[in-house]
Model the fold of this input.
Amino acid sequence: MARSGVGTIIGRKSASKGREYTRIWIYVPTKVQEDTAFPFEIGDPCLVEIGGDGASLSVKTISPEEAAAECVHEPILDTQLSQGDAEPVQSPYFLMRRAKLYSQEKRGLNLENEVEQLYREKNLQEFEKKLGVSFNDKSLLVKALSHKPPYGSSLRTKEENRRLGMLGDKLIDLVLFESLYKSGSTSKEMDDLRKIKSSRPALNRAMREIGIEPYWILNPSTEKSAIEGGAKLGEDTFEALVGAIYLNRGVSEAESFVKRHLL
Done:
């Protein structure tokens, strides 16, 4: 585990409305960023605080709602975190001012309205036809497709997507094991084939074949890089969709979906 590493405060000159200032980034060592305990993803809002001793700076995860409330005031530091390279990445890890701009109050959306808007903007009715599944509860579909949503989103989609994915992951295993058992596979064959058929490449391939790319709901600042390098994104989406189909349409349709794309 890499809980600590030597970082660097990076400054870059910038200007806004005729005023020059230095924008601050915090370089996070690659070994810390790649640790499984690293609590952030690109696009997450955070709270930046100067410690009482005046010699420390803390960066804490917060929800979009908390970010919107905190951003009534200007942030202490206009802070971004960079990944692995000497230069900070163009898309920020955390920028609380963006949370203010995209806050729920600014957009005037509640959960129901946001789901309705995203469903319409992303043309998810067309995506349902591609899936061969019609959702009664559109919010489940939106949450299954949302990974790193805009700052201030009322969906809390990062957590909801993970919860759907956990459910879908177990359902995929159940469907595959049952099918392999009925086919007469040995216990070793069942385990080996299940691992292959539910692997990240297999789930990502299934999503790409469906044509998932236009329908992902992602943070605009990270959308391009997430889609281009998104084997994990495809895997997570497939699992979340299976969980969403199960909750909305029942085990029979979830089972049919898995068999249709993995067997």
In short: The chain has a mean pLDDT of 77. The chain has two domains: 8-101, 109-262. Residues 172 and 258 are 7 Å apart (CA to CA). The domain at 109-262 is CATH 1.10.1520.10 (Ribonuclease iii, N-terminal Endonuclease Domain; Chain A).
